[in-house]
Specification:
It contains 17 helices and 20 strands. Helices cover 39% and strands 16% of the residues. The longest helix has 32 residues. By secondary structure, the protein is α+β, with helices and mostly antiparallel strands. The strands form four sheets. Strands 1, 2, 7, 8, 9, 10, 19 and 20 form an eight-stranded mixed beta sheet that branches. Strands 4, 5, 12, 13, 14, 15, 16 and 17 form an eight-stranded mixed beta sheet that branches. It is globular and about 65 Å long. Helix 1 runs parallel beside helix 5 and helix 14 runs antiparallel to helix 15.
């Protein structure tokens, strides 16, 4: 191997979705990037459910850094066309409450919609396909990638780091990013792991299955439960005291080609310590059997891979950044799969890390202070999600308590998503990527609106009310009343929503075009002063434009397929192969205009 193929600006350890997106971003901007992956592609991974803040963040990444392939992950339509028909659609977050030995009650469910086209809907990522796609995108932009290459050691010196691999020798890099997930190399090598400082204490059992029935076939009829979107077309959460079970189908739309469904059960460690002598599969089915409606949904289900049972799911690192290194979020900390926060925090981190690394390489300045923003906001977001998840486990005690606490999450999600959209709207008007700098300024920093003092106050006071209930200081009724009082006082709830009405169990309604316009109009003309001007300031024109583009794209795609089918009935020769985009070099230009570093090895 030539010497210049062992010397890089940035080395990324881990070839999952976070590492490959970062690699594509860096290589697109001329950064000599090395990617080392211990296994290969396709490979199994969890983190399959997106949320609106994730998908809006993906749009920001794609536009800020000029990597349009990342935007193919942002909506289910684009994902289906460009990446994989094995991915599922996610039109909602559904939560169904269960009591042991009883069928579920029609009125004990809640739902929160994802955005409709053109800004949605969200997706269930079949990670084998999505991760492989992003790996290939990274290579096409010029990343030097080695799969099946284990990094055994990293040695940090004054002006570089040396990465020692098991089979490929050593590589030098000016900076190292660990994207290795829970078993990341740097936390172990540098002794960063610590006892998780989190209130959430849970463990997980998960697998992939076939023949999981759509819950709509066993649930009470829609006329009784009143939810606007099918349970089977979203991420379904079965809740019970001390735990919850996820159902993430990949086979839930007419153009899907997968028969798989991701399932997992999450249990409070204190309520359900890991039993001695009981295997993961046996324990999974024991819990399914406790709840008749869940048992009916799973009565024909069969696993297609071994069940995995974890000890405590939470882990933590003392630092996120250090001298010539940083950790992507899933290498640093983890809370719980509830609310699908892992990908959202990763996308937030990539947005902040990308331009810092590009500037560091250009200026040859990797001072740790440059990266402290990631240290603060990554850790702050994990603390937020710990509060959100731990209070959710507490609220699983009673459906009405969940029905109140759930509304706090819907409001923080609304403002977090709108912060991303504000930047996107400004970019569409100016086409100046500097507008994305606003996402690192008040009140848009972080996720879930936590940088807005009104949102932060609402969340923290509602959290304290739930903790007072947990500690026996408040009754359930007082806690519920306090949450609704806080929601009302905050002024954050759109008047076109039913957030303040406990009987409205889908308070956001739907995010199709007209309800979306009503939210924008409320924000512009009727919202409180602390909302107006910072949120919902525009976007109607952008949404209209993208709606027309989305419709035209789907129309062209269908017409093209019909044309090609008819043509192929009569002719053998075609020139379809000439329409594929040319491969990219390290700077995102056609080959020959920049040094090529676009060969993946092994």
């Amino acid at each position: 191997m030539q010497e210049d193929q062992r010397d890089f600006d940035v080395a990324i350890v881990g070839g999952g979705i976070g590492g490959t997106m970062l690699g594509a971003i860096l290589a697109r901007h001329g950064v000599r990037t090395l990617l080392l992956e211990g296994s290969g592609h396709p490979r199994f991974a969890i983190g399959e459910s997106t949320v609106p803040e994730t998908t809006f963040g993906l749009r920001v990444l794609a536009r800020r850094y000029g990597v349009p392939e990342i935007e193919h992950l942002a909506t289910h339509g684009a994902l289906r066309r460009h990446v994989s028909s094995n991915c599922g659609v996610k039109r909602n977050f559904s939560f169904v409450y269960h009591r042991e030995g009883e069928p579920t009650r029609a009125e004990e469910c809640t739902q929160y919609p994802t955005w409709g086209p053109p800004l949605g809907p969200d997706s269930h990522f079949f990670r084998q396909d999505v991760d492989a796609y992003m790996f290939h995108v990274a290579v096409s932009y010029g990343v030097t990638a080695h799969t099946h290459t284990m990094v055994e050691d990293v040695k940090f010196e004054e002006d570089h780091a040396t990465l020692v691999t098991r089979d490929k020798g050593s590589f030098r890099a000016s900076y190292v990013v660990d994207a290795g997930g829970m078993r990341a190399m740097l936390p172990e090598r540098l002794g960063l792991r610590q006892e998780p400082p989190y209130r959430t204490r849970s463990r997980t059992i998960f697998t992939h299955m076939v023949d999981v029935r759509p819950f709509d076939t066993v649930a009470p009829p829609r006329e009784q439960h009143g939810m606007p979107s099918p349970f089977s077309q979203g991420t379904l959460h079965h809740m019970f005291q001390g735990g919850w079970l996820w159902v993430i189908p990949f086979d839930n739309h007419t153009s899907g080609t997968s028969g798989l469904c991701s399932v997992g059960i999450n249990l409070d460690l204190d309520a359900y310590p890991r039993p001695e002598g009981v295997g993961a599969e046996e324990e999974f089915w024991q819990h399914v059997g406790r709840f008749p409606s869940v048992a009916r949904q799973f009565e024909r289900a069969r696993s297609v891979r071994p069940y995995v049972s974890t000890d405590r799911t939470q882990f933590s690192s003392q630092q996120v950044v250090g001298d010539r290194w940083c950790l992507l979020p899933h290498a640093s900390d983890f809370i719980d799969p509830l609310f699908s926060s892992g990908l959202a925090v990763t996308v937030m981190s990539l947005n902040a890390l990308g331009h810092r690394l590009i500037d560091a390489v250009r200026q040859d300045d990797f001072d740790t202070a440059r990266f402290q923003y990631l240290e603060h906001w990554t850790k702050r977001m994990f603390r937020f999600y710990d509060d959100l998840v731990s209070c959710s486990y507490i609220s699983f005690d009673d459906f009405e308590l969940w029905n109140a606490w759930n509304r706090v999450w819907t409001i923080t999600t609304l403002y977090g998503t709108n912060a991303q959209n504000q930047a996107a709207v400004t970019f569409e008007k100016t086409h100046d990527t500097a507008c994305f700098d606003a996402l690192e300024l008040p009140p848009y920093r972080g996720l879930q609106g936590v940088d807005n003092p009104w949102v932060e106050r609402l969340f923290e006071q509602a959290r304290d009310a739930v903790l007072a209930y947990r500690d026996g200081e408040w009754t359930k009724e007082r806690t519920i009343d306090r949450i609704y009082e806080l929601l009302r006082q905050s002024g954050l709830c759109p008047q076109v929503w039913g957030t303040l009405d406990p009987q409205d169990r889908c308070p956001a309604g739907v995010f199709t075009l007209w309800p979306l316009m009503k939210i924008l109009l409320w924000g512009k003309f009727r919202s409180p002063r602390h909302v107006r001007g910072s949120y919902f300031t525009g976007g109607a024109r952008m949404v209209g434009k993208e709606a027309a583009q989305t419709y035209a794209t789907e129309l062209r795609s269908g017409a093209t397929q019909v044309h090609q089918t008819l043509r192929d009935m009569w002719f053998n020769w075609n020139r379809d192969w000439t329409r594929r985009p040319a491969p990219r070099s390290a700077a995102g230009r056609p080959p020959g205009t920049a040094p090529a570093r676009d060969r993946a090895r092994d």
